[in-house]
Design a protein that fits this description.
- By secondary structure, the chain is mainly α.
- It has 2 helices and no strands.
- The chain has helices at about 1-45, 50-95.
- Helix 1 (about 1-45) runs antiparallel to helix 2 (about 50-95).
- The longest helix has about 50 residues, at about 50-95.
Length: about 100
């Protein structure tokens, strides 16, 4: 029963990690679109407009969110890779013994 609980927790961790990765990817894409729009507006001398200032604020907020969550995502992803490598090594060691 305890083993199933660990498996459930590991699966939930993996699902949450996948969702976080997808959200970060979407945030990166959205950030690129906003920056492109801001660049276009800048080239057309529209930096004083309300739309530009709103985009600028949204871009800063989005970048702050990305900066907060990307290191957490990368840290957790590294943990998963380490666990996978350890599991593969343990599997190889067990095959050599048996």
């Amino acid at each position: 029963m305890e083993k199933e609980n660990h498996i459930d927790r590991a699966l939930a961790f993996m699902e949450n990690l996948e969702r976080l990765g997808a959200q970060l990817h979407q945030a990166d894409d959205q950030q690129k679109l906003m920056l492109q729009r801001m660049l276009n507006m800048s080239q057309n001398n529209q930096t004083g407009t309300e739309e530009y200032h709103e985009l600028e604020q949204r871009s800063h907020d989005l970048q702050a969110m990305i900066n907060k969550w990307r290191p957490i995502y990368e840290e957790r992803l590294a943990m998963v890779k380490e666990v996978r490598q350890a599991a593969e090594q343990a599997k190889k060691n067990n095959q050599k013994r048996g």
